[in-house]
Amino acid sequence: YPSEFLMQKITEDNQIPVHLCVCMSLQYVAGLKGNALVEFFHGNIAEVENEELRHLMWSSVLFYKTPNVEVMACVLLSTKAIYFLLDDSFIHADEHQSDFWNKENSDCKNSSFHLSCCFVLKLNDLQSVNVGLFDQYFRITGHSADHIVTCLTRDSYNTHTFIQQLMAVLSLLARTPSPEPVDKDFYSEFGSKTTGKMENYELIHSSRVKFIYPNEEEIGDLAFLVAEKMDGLNLQSLNILLYVLAFQVNHVEGSAQNTSSLQPKTLILTSSDLFLFDEDYVSYPLPEFAKEPPKRDKYQLTDGRRIRDLDRVLMGYQTYPQALTFVFDDVQNQDLMQNLTLDHFGE
């Protein structure tokens, strides 16, 4: 340990997304390669001497207790725990987090010394992993509200790779196996006999950690919500063509694009409209210990435009992530075309 392949893979993955800015301490971590990266892990992060670093990923993360604060993190998966090296901006973003982080010595007098907050979730405390729609994100759940965190990868490949690595590491844990179910068939395993409603697809790992994947009903619920926002639309004719986690760029005159101008949004494209939603990625589905529903709905509509009002789409020439600008006709009466059609062709 570590193998040459693992060293090369971790070095390749150790790249901060180009569109996001991070603090000096995380920039230092991103500059480490090969042996230096593994030595940094064992010298500064690892809690046990014999644990091995298996996977590294850069991702935005959300905590259950602070669902409105998205922060960049370096996610390190070892044979004992999942470590989240957090951007310094997160610690000062919310006054209520002082108790959560219990930071006493974080304000160092020496300005050249950079200290990062590290959130640790031990694999033995892991209870379930919820994979989001189209693998755009996943939520890791432990035994309390402090141990729920969502990784917004915005990338199905990164999500899939992390889940695979996590399953492989969980297979190494020595846990007593669950008793085998007696005479379970497909319908009793995944469906409720009382309602006939299919539940989300669950895969129970040998380590007793549940991996929960969304089923078709989640898309149906989303389609119903979108149809509500579109007056007089028949739900049967509504098709969701695209669901993607993106950023909305707020144009600031005379300033360079930075992280403060990027607002996380869920983009949903149907055959007739383009929608932007604010989505709560960390509170749903409700964890078992939750005594009341979250303060806000899972989806909150922030903007919606008709495709037929789209004038042109401007594409940037930079590499991934691609910037798209949608230019819509500024028509004061949104239903002008519809009214003309009705008046001209009949009642």
Describe the structure.
It is a single chain. This protein has 347 residues and is of the alpha+beta class. It has two domains: 4-96 and 112-173, PH-domain like; 216-332, PH-domain like (Roll), CATH 2.30.29. It is 24% helix and 29% strand. It contains nine helices and 15 strands. It has helices at residues 4-13, 24-30, 34-45, 88-91, 97-101, 156-170, 186-190, 216-229, 336-345; strands at 53-63, 66-78, 81-86, 117-122, 128-131, 138-141, 148-152, 201-204, 210-213, 240-249, 262-270, 273-279, 299-306, 310-315, 324-328. The strands form three sheets. It has a nine-stranded mixed sheet. It has a four-stranded antiparallel sheet with strand order 10-11-12-13. Strands 14-15 form a two-stranded antiparallel ribbon. β14 (310-315) and β15 form a beta hairpin. α1 crosses α3. The radius of gyration is 23 Å and the shape is globular. It starts with a helix and ends with a helix.
Q: Tags for this entry?
A:
single chain; 347 residues; alpha+beta; PH-domain like; 2 domains; 9-stranded mixed beta sheet; 4-stranded antiparallel beta sheet; 9 helices
